[in-house]
Amino acid sequence: MSTEAPALQVSGLCASYGSVPAIVDINLEVRRGEIVTMIGANGAGKSTVIKCICGLLKPTSGIVRLFGEAVTRHSPDLLVKRGMSVVPEGRRLFGEMTLKENLELGAFTRNDPVAVRRDMDRVLNLFPALRDRLATPVGTFSGGQQQMVAVARALMSGPRLMLLDEPTIGLAPVVVEQISRLVVEIAESGVDILIVEQNAEVALDIANRAYVLEGGQVVAEDSAAALASSEDVQRAYLGI
Known about the structure:
By secondary structure, the protein is of the alpha/beta class. Helix content is about 35%, strand content about 25%. The protein contains nine helices and ten strands. Helix 3 (about 100-105) runs parallel beside helix 5 (about 145-155). It is globular, with a radius of gyration of 17 Å. The model has no long low-confidence stretch (mean pLDDT about 90).
């Protein structure tokens, strides 16, 4: 059995918006070599968990550990330096800037230009449809292409752990399939992944383990395969 600390460990995490509790006693982990997903309806608290993990929202209590180190109230830029990257909901690209400029921003914490150039070439190999558009403003890209840019930008920080918040929302089925394959390929390259999805079918298909959130709480956790075969999950999230 491996003695390595999990890539991510969340213990007793609680957070509120003003006086309104948003998440309560969240416990989850991403082990080395895993894709883990959080599924749940809109408003279940999934994105709030991500915001707390990546430093955008201060939890009221609980602990976040990254590769064994307590990082609960670290700033986002420090977490990037520690090996975490985030693909935010809605992509949050700089539309007037070129693809090359957006990718370079993903590497803003790095001071190794040779390695950055190598990683940019690696990222473009992963997203060949983008290679000829380095000088093009990303605001002119399709929704699917913009999602690819968001993932590519996150990879430019050289992450060990990647958080993806609703990466397939609003995309055509063929693009959803492309993004799903890319997530698996990224995981196989050695990046551990936590993915938040409303599209439970896609998430459970590519994940190793899964957590179900309802009302700001974890109400179920198991292997992705076991949850996909659960009658309760099928009725609530898979439309079966």
